[in-house]
C-alpha cells in the first residue's frame, strides 16, 4: 500500500472514529437526558405522593382534633351541668335545713298556710303537723275560733300542715311538699335567676 492509501485509510479511520465518538456522545447525551427525565418524573411523583400523604395526615389530625375538642366540650357541658345541679341541690338542702331549724316566724307561716287551706276546704276535719308545730297550731286554731279539729302528728314532716276537709279533700301545705313543688315547678326560673339561662 502506498503512503497515500495509508493516509486515506487513516483519514477514514479517524472519520469513522469521530463519527462513532459523536454517535456515542449523542447516545450517551440522549440516555442522560432520558435518565434525568426519569429522575425528574420520579421526584415529581415522590413530591405528589408526599403532598397527598401530608394532606391526608393533616386531614386526619384536623378530624382527630375536632373529635377531641367536641368530646372536651361535651365533658365541659356535663361538668357545668352537674355542678349547677349540685348547687341547686345544695340550695334546696339549705332551705330544708332552715325550715327544720325554724329560722323564721313559724306561727306566721302556719297562719298563712291554714288561711290558704281554709279557702280551699269547706270545713276542716283533720290537720296533720310536725310534732314541733303541734302547740303553735293549737294556739292558731283557738285564735281562728275553729272547733272539732283532730290534730295528728307526723314525725316525718319538716313542718307546715296537711288539711283534710269533712268532705275528704286533702290540701297538702306541708313544707316538704311545697319545697318539692317549688323545685319541680320553678327550677327553670331558679336557673335563670342564678345563671341567666
Q: Quick gist of this model?
A:
The chain has about 200 residues and is of the alpha+beta class. Helices cover about 75% and strands about 10% of the residues.
Task: Describe the protein's architecture and organization.
The mean pLDDT is 89. The chain has a four-stranded mixed beta sheet. With 197 residues, it is of the alpha+beta class. Helix 1 packs antiparallel against helix 4. It has helices at residues 3-100, 106-120, 134-144, 175-195, and strands at residues 124-129, 150-153, 160-165, 170-174.
* Strand arrangement across the biggest beta sheet: 2-1-3-4
What general form does the structure show?
Answer: rod-shaped
Low-confidence stretches: none
Total discrete domains? 2
What string, H for helix and E for strand, traces the elements in order? HHEHEEEH
Mean pLDDT: 89
Fraction in helix = over 70%
| Structural category | alpha+beta
* Strand element count: 4
Q: What is the end-to-end distance? A: 118 Å
Provide the gyration radius in Å.
Answer: 50 Å
**Largest sheet composition:** 4 strands, mixed
Number of helices: 4
Beta-strand content bin: 5-15%
Amino acid at each position: 500500500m502506498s503512503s497515500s492509501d495509508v493516509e486515506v485509510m487513516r483519514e477514514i479511520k479517524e472519520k469513522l472514529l469521530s463519527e462513532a465518538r459523536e454517535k456515542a456522545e449523542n447516545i450517551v447525551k440522549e440516555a442522560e437526558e432520558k435518565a434525568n427525565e426519569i429522575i425528574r418524573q420520579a421526584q415529581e411523583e415522590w413530591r405528589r405522593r408526599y403532598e397527598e400523604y401530608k394532606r391526608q395526615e393533616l386531614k386526619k389530625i384536623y378530624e382527630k382534633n375536632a373529635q377531641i375538642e367536641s368530646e372536651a366540650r361535651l365533658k365541659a357541658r356535663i361538668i357545668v351541668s352537674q355542678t349547677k345541679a349540685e348547687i341547686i341541690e345544695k340550695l334546696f338542702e339549705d332551705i330544708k335545713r332552715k325550715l327544720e331549724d325554724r329560722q323564721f316566724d313559724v306561727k306566721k307561716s302556719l297562719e298563712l298556710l291554714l288561711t290558704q287551706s281554709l279557702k280551699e276546704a269547706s270545713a276542716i276535719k283533720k290537720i296533720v303537723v310536725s310534732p314541733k308545730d303541734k302547740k303553735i297550731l293549737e294556739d292558731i286554731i283557738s285564735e281562728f275560733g275553729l272547733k272539732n279539729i283532730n290534730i295528728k302528728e307526723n314525725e316525718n314532716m319538716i313542718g307546715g300542715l296537711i288539711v283534710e276537709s269533712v268532705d275528704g279533700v286533702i290540701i297538702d301545705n306541708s313544707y316538704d311538699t311545697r319545697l318539692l313543688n317549688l323545685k319541680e315547678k320553678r327550677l327553670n326560673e331558679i336557673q335563670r335567676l342564678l345563671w341567666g339561662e
